[in-house]
Amino acid sequence: MSRYRPPQAQGSPYITPEGAQRLRDELNTLWKVERPQVTATVHAAALNGDRSENGDYIYGKKRLREIDSRVRFLQKRLDELQVVDTKPSDTNRIFFGCWIGLEDEEGITHNYRIVGSDEFDLNQGLLSCDSPLGKALLGKVAGDTVYLKTPEGQTEWHIDSITYV
């Protein structure tokens, strides 16, 4: 079995100011707080001698590789991202950054914000603009109904409200 993984499609290069700040905070925490702590642990473990059976040394080096990989990714991604902090001219339509009130087929209302692929989290109501539902909602107005094909069948979403903060 091969370890090869085909490259994933790059997400949209858009991000909200809050999402960009979260990524910068994560980068700062990894680089200025966590990496020095792990480096100190690895250094202390290396002073103990035999590194082949030293768990602190082995797992510390592994964690350093993980941190360095994430730091490289964040630095590169933050350079590529475009922060969207302005409202569109037509605030009656769904565009990036707006909050949407959606009613599903059972009549339950869900509130989502259209955000970039780097910051989506459905538990917090952040819906990626690259997701099937996000793509279907873009450009729609309040009162429209969106139909979405899912593995379970077709679902229906009614747009109740659109708000830009």
Walk me through this protein's architecture.
The protein is an alpha/beta fold and 165 residues long. The chain has 2 domains: 14-83, Orthogonal Bundle (Helix Hairpins), CATH 1.10.287; 99-163, Roll (Chitinase A, domain 3), CATH 3.10.50.30. It has 3 helices and 7 strands; from the N terminus they run βααββββαββ.
Distance between the termini: 49 Å
**Coarse structural class:** alpha/beta
- Determine the number of helices (DSSP H or I, runs of at least 4 residues): 3
Give the overall pLDDT as a whole number. 93
What oligomeric arrangement do these chains adopt?
Answer: single chain
List SSEs in N-to-C order: EHHEEEEHEE
Radius of gyration: 22 Å
The CATH architecture category of the largest domain equals Orthogonal Bundle
Helix content: 25-40%
How would you write the strand order of the largest sheet? 5-4-3-7-6
Q: What is the CATH H-level superfamily of the largest domain?
A: Transcription elongation factor, GreA/GreB, N-terminal domain
Total domains, how many? 2
For the largest beta-sheet, the strand count, sense and barrel status come to: 5 strands, mixed
**Beta-strand content:** 15-25%
What's the count of strands? 7
CATH topology of the largest domain, by name, is: Helix Hairpins
Q: Which overall shape is indicated by the principal axes computed on the Cα atoms?
A: elongated
In terms of per-residue confidence, which ranges show pLDDT below 50 for 5 or more consecutive residues? none
Q: Tell me, what is the CATH class of the largest domain? A: Mainly Alpha
